[in-house]
Task: inverse folding
């Protein structure tokens, strides 16, 4: 995966850490919190203008999985997928995989920011640590949205019957952002604990494959051995895949499990953001 150190981005940092006047009421405090969170989101998303080719490079992996792995396994009928073809079953899983692979390395950018002095500026400001972590989490999810466009286009070209309902597509986008936020915050926690790019990179590489294969991304949970089924049910990626599969495919009925998918992802993300906010100052210690 291509990882580039940020360049020419420090000119926006001073304006980013500029703070608003202190809130005078609980309602104003809530508004202030979300305003600062939005500022962090905006700054992080604008980083894409410095390296737009990164979007193209990240799109290669899901394309290869769908065009090669998906097409081959569709022909051999090796994995039971019910009333949908294997390619249709796999498409949401590959989108979830793309989100995971992008978000799990977000901690490396945090280490670069620390080395460039950005973290020190953030911590010197009265911006809540939770705003900093939540803003970075949501922005990481937003940065994975181009992956959805690539997977949707390829799936349509390959004959996958996609759900064209606007509400379903909106749900897909929300799930992608939540999944990206969840795994990028986990990566931030790892960065706060390990504090070096090499270690964060190593942990990311070690975890991506187990998270991917111990989920329902490329095969149903019911064909897994019992011990792996237990792991799959506590794996957040499973809930991302399950929600995407329900919303993306035209043949899949929407059931009450979709609400569970959103609830689990929301709860896990909030818990990780709280832990990340607590550990964030350790980056400069």
Result:
């Amino acid at each position: 995966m291509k990882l580039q150190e940020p360049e020419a981005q420090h000119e926006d940092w001073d304006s980013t850490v500029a703070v608003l006047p202190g809130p005078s009421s609980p309602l104003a405090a809530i508004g202030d919190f979300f305003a600062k969170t939005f500022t962090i989101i905006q700054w992080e998303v604008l980083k894409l203008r410095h390296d737009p080719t990164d979007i193209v490079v990240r799109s290669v992996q899901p394309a290869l999985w769908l065009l090669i792995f998906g097409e081959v396994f569709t022909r051999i009928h090796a994995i039971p997928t019910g009333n949908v073809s294997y390619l249709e079953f796999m498409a949401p899983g590959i989108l979830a995989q793309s989100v995971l692979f992008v978000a799990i390395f977000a901690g490396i950018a945090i280490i670069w920011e620390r080395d460039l002095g950005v973290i020190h500026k953030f911590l010197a400001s009265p911006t809540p640590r939770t705003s900093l972590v939540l803003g970075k989490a949501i922005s990481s999810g937003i940065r994975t949205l181009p992956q959805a466009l690539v997977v949707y286009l390829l799936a349509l070209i390959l004959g996958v019957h996609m759900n064209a309902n606007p509400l379903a597509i909106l749900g897909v986008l929300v799930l992608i952002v939540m999944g990206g936020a969840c795994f990028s915050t986990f990566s931030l926690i790892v960065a706060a604990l390990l504090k070096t790019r090499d270690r964060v990179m190593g942990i990311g590489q070690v975890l991506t494959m187990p998270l991917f294969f111990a989920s329902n991304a490329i095969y149903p949970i019911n064909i897994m051995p019992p011990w792996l089924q237990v792991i799959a049910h506590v794996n957040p990626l499973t809930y991302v895949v399950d929600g995407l599969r329900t919303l993306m495919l035209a043949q899949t009925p929407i059931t009450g499990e979709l609400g569970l998918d959103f609830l689990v992802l929301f709860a896990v993300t909030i818990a990780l953001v709280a832990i990340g906010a607590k550990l964030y100052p350790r980056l400069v210690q």
